[in-house]
Amino acid sequence: MPWWGVASALLANVLYSTGFVLEKRALSALPALSARQPARVVRHLIGSPLWIGGALSLAAGFAAQLAVYRALPLAAAQGLFVSGLVLLLLLSSVVLGERTSGRERQGIVAILVALVMVVASLRGGDAEAIARTAPPGTLLALAVPSLAAGLLLYRSAERRARRRHRLPTAGVPYGVAVGLLYGVSSLAIKGVSGLLTSGDLLGAAAGLLRSPYPYLLLFTGATGLVLSQTALQRCRASLIVPVCTTVTCVFTVACGTVAFGEPLPSDPVRLALRLGGTAVALSVLLALPRHDTPAPHPQATPTEHQPPTGLPELTHDTR
Q: Do residues 246 and 282 touch, judged by C-beta distance below 8 A?
């Protein structure tokens, strides 16, 4: 059993969850951000010490993720990463004061079950079957359409959010869009981890520059930074991050297994545990609500005049 790989995955979960919560806390004190003004977004972000602390925590999680991909197969690693949603929801409740719904609490239990199933499917020989690189053509054939789909979905969510008289979005479309970008990034991280196994640093660096991995990381990192921080400012971290994480994990397992050619367990019991754990994690995404319940106006009282039944209440000042 590659326990150090499991420990690295759990450490990455702690670092990622902490980083997201710190960034969300920092974003609440910043002016409204827009993905159409990326330079302004970056300028506000780097001017916030709290946000920088969150970004450093995410960077440390990235380093731990590299270690995970050198020890565990893609499917097992993603099953462990999904378990980080439990800590994320707890931190969002304690630090950010975000209230979780009954379905979200049920999702915590489901994720714990998925974690146990994936860990039970591992064995010591798994590290020997880990693929190191993927054919560039196959990788790009999976990555480019996924990036385009993520950008189009984010743009569509932005247009819908600007319409009047809509329920406040819970962030599911944003989370799916950013999750596709980070799914491609996860495949690139997997490829980088495979190329850094050589003791020849110069040779490894040259091979890395000839591969598509660093360029995919650069694009997904820059684009994902602007899109994710804009979405995180508008939506609850306790919902958008779980959606993003689940989409990223499922995408990485489905596309990464094809791109890197990693075999699934041959033993029927271990195969059932591995696939079952991934399926349980997917159920979390399906259980999450699509809209937040609008909060009552703080100045409203039972004696104040209310709009007639069936007519929308104005949400902007008409003076």
A: yes
User: Based on the number of CB atoms within 10 Å of its own CB, is 277 exposed (0-12), middle (13-18) or buried (19 or more)?
Assistant: buried
Cα–Cα dist 307/80, whole Å: 49
Tokens 């004061």 map to which residue? 97
Tokens describing residue 25: 């806390």
DSSP secondary structure of 10-56:
HHHHHHHHHHHHHHHHHHTTSPPP-TT-HHHHHHHHHT-HHHHHHHH
Which one is predicted more confidently, 271 or 313? 271
pTM of the model: 0.73
101: left (phi over 0), alpha (psi -120 to 50) or beta: beta
> What is the DSSP secondary structure assignment for residue 299, as one 8-state letter?
T
Plot region of 67 (φ>0 → left; ψ -120 to 50 → alpha; else → beta): alpha
Please check whether residue 20 is in contact with residue 58, taking contact to mean a CB–CB distance below 8 angstroms: yes
Give dist(CA 55, CA 57) in Å, integer: 5
pLDDT at 108 over 70: no
Gap between the terminal Cα atoms of the chain: 67
Q: Which two tokens stand for residue 60?
A: 């440390």
Yes or no: say if 179 and 220 are a contact pair by the CB < 8 Å rule: no
Q: Of 9 and 76, which is predicted with more confidence?
A: 9
- As a whole number of angstroms, the distance between CA 69 and CA 21 comes to 25
